[in-house]
Structures are given as structure tokens and as C-alpha cells.
Inositol-1-monophosphatase
Amino acid sequence: MIRSALMNVMTGAALKAGRGLKRDFGEVENLQVSVKGPGDFVSAADKRAEKVLFEELSKARPGYGFLMEESGAVEGSDKSHTFIIDPLDGTTNFLHGLPIFSISIGLVREGQVVAGLVYNPANDDMFVAEKGQGAYLNNRRLRVAARRDLGEALIGCGTPHIGKANGHARFKQEFSAVMANVANIRRLGSAALDLCYVAAGNYDGFWERDLQQWDIAAGIIMVKEAGGYITDADGGPDPLAKGTVCAGNDLIHRALLALVKQA
Ligand code: 2AM
Ligand code: CA
Ligand code: CA
Ligand code: CA
């Protein structure tokens, strides 16, 4: 288990914000919800959690910059460190009473994710990773699945959102290509957790397009520190910049990427 000062700060902030999310999840029907765009919702729970995370992290690491889904960028005096935060990844699940959502915190140093945390308050799953230190779920060290045969693999994915007409056509082709070659496919709705499920070996692989940095910053280091491979969905080396991902162990990643790229 990672017990660095930084990870203590990040877990403390996530647990505090998570208590608020648990409370709000218990009375989700009373939450104020607004619409940011087609199929894109934000609730008072997202905003409250983000406020707690910003307060706690900026108190402990004054000077670090922030990039947050709901409040945008906050520049710090320290130009080399930025926290990238999604206070509630899986808002749609949350608002529908499905306990598959998370808080995601990544720390980027000079363009590279050096620490990540993904916390699901509904079941207290706390995933953490630091560069060179491994990835953990609660106290258990994580390792990506060992499966070698794509035909036996369980693959996760993300579906395009309403209003993305090009994305729909492309996704249908990718989905058919992958479905014809794997054991089965899942779609859970929190990209941050999806990448943790690759790190933990629950999914053998995962791909999704049209993501934001806060959806994947923490998940990227989780997969890498669990011994996995992660690229953008076209095989490029910087999924954080591209906003697309393809992940798995070395063999599954390579085979899945070939299907997605060809589609
Ligand atoms: P969110 O719940 O924080 O918005 C699931 O496929 C991923 O896409 C999640 O990380 C989710 O993050 C994000 N997402 C959900 N609805 C979206 C939309 N309308 N536009 C862009 N991203 C969305
Ligand atoms: Ca959102
Ligand atoms: Ca998100
Ligand atoms: Ca969010």
C-alpha cells in the first residue's frame, strides 16, 4: 500500500468529498440538476464534491494548479504540478441510482501523470497508484489480467454521447469488430473506474473515445502501474492529450487496438 504524504492528502480529500456524495446519493431525487449540453447533466453533488476536493488539496499543496470538470482551470504559482479532477465520474449512473460512480484525482507533473486516485464511495473501493510504486485497491496490489486469448476476453467500452453523429457511426463499426472477436463486452459508465477494472484484471481490455483529461488522468497511471499497456485508441502514446484510450495487458492491448483501428 502507498503511504506517501501526497497519497495521504489525496485519500483524505477523496474520503471527505466521498462522504458528501454518499449523502447525496441517498436522497438523489431531491438534488438540483442542470443540463450542460445534450445528454450532459451536472448536479449539486458534482459541484459540492469538487469544492471539497479543491479546498482540501489546495490547502495541502498551495501553489499547485488545478484542472476541474465543473470549475475549469485554476493556475498555481508552481507551473509544473497540476491536479486534474473529476469530482463525480458517472453522473448519469449516480442520478439513476446506480452505484457505479467515482471521484477521480490525477496529479500531472511536466505533462506526465505521476499519481492517481479513483474512489467509489458507494462500495468504498479506493484505487491508488504512484509512479514506480504500483497500483492498489484498498490494501491489495493490482496486476492486469494474464489472459492471452482475445477470444476469451471480457472487454469494456464507452458508448458515444448524444449529439456526436460521427462518433456513432464509428462506434458501431468498432463495436461489431470487437464483439465478433471477444467473449463479451460491458459498458459501465465511469471511465475512471473502467480503467481501474483493467488495472485490477476484471476487464481484460477497454477502449473509449471522446473523453476528457479528468475522466482518464488517474486511470492511465493505474493501468501502467498494474503492468498494463495504455495508448490512445489509434495507438498513439499520449491518451491524456488525445482523449481516447485503449488498454489491456500487452497481448490483449495489441489485439484490441488492431480491431479498433481497422474498424
Ligand atoms: P461524467 O459522468 O463525469 O460526465 C462515460 O462514457 C464517460 O463519459 C464518463 O467518464 C462520463 O463522465 C463521460 N460523459 C458522460 N456524459 C457525457 C457527455 N454528454 N459528454 C461528454 N462526456 C460525457
Ligand atoms: Ca459530466
Ligand atoms: Ca467524467
Ligand atoms: Ca464528472
Observations:
- Residues 40, 42, 69, 91 surround calcium ion (ligand 2) (CB under 6 Å).
- The helical segments are 5-26, 44-60, 91-95, 165-179, 191-199, 213-225, 239-242, 250-262.
- The first strand starts at residue 33 and ends at 37.
- The domain at 5-141 is CATH 3.30.540.10 (Fructose-1,6-Bisphosphatase; Chain A, domain 1).
